[in-house]
Fold this sequence. Notes:
By secondary structure, the chain is an alpha/beta fold. 26% of the residues lie in helices and 26% in strands.
Amino acid sequence: MSTNKQIILKKNPVGIPEITDFDTIETDIPEITNNQILTKTVHLSLDPYIRGVITGRHIYSEKVNVGDTIVGRTVSEVVKSNHTNFSEGDIVVCSNGWQEFGVSDGEGVRKLDPSLAPLSTALGILGMPGLTAYAGLTVYGEPKDGDHVVVSAASGPVGCMVGQIAQIYGAKAIGIAGSEEKCSVVKNKFGFIDCINYKTEKIEERLKDLCPDGVDIYFDNVGGETLDTMTRNLAMHARIVLCGFMTQYNLDSPPPGPNLGPIVGSRATIRGVVVYDHYDKQDDFISIASDWLKAGKIDYIEDEVFGLENAPAQFCKLMRGENFGKTIVTIQ
């Protein structure tokens, strides 16, 4: 333990990020002062929102500039502590970013119980993606027994949780994904009643067969043409939950918006979910979701690579839409 490997931004990406936009450096492991902890990264979460942070369009994070370490949530082990609330050996969720070691004053750091679930789930179904799905669906979607719930990016960490939670609430989950393999997993592993392959099928035609009375809840993770299509296929008093805009993250400027006229006709509502607004529900969610996981009511898939040096390639793969499940980098 002598140096700290970091991944920094080498140049601002144009469109979909490339490996050459990043660089690997080594620096001294930082020293800590009073009320600080030094943590060693175990798992690093890669998420589409990081693309918005790099361009300076994320609503809460400051822009990552050239030369800065890329941001990101991590599961880490406390290796040194000058903080009364943390001890060496504690496993925590923190924000080390793309580096092997990080320093924190404890704000926003949460201890984990390693016996509760695999540690990496704290970055996925029991972490920010899971809470996003839970809060977005239950608070804004308000699922009822028999509702038809359609979810885009259904094989991803948010989408798969939305569908599984919807079914726990008695709704019927229908996914949208980009390959036969992903659709197969959405149906056979996550239990959705069906999944539409948007690359080979016409979404609107399939929706008329699957939801003849219209879609009650649409949980949107992609935006773009899919959102436009969904507005034309809503049930009366439908609820649209806007969560992610995967089709826009690599664009320099936003595309034209959808025609919102059908929203009026269906008396629908549109709500945007921002996970930071729902941290007050985090403890309850983790307790509930942990029980669901132990009972086999929810499942998950991880797209995992090993070694921090592989983070740029894994992130570029994510931003091309080629990931399969929650994107994780495990530090060996």
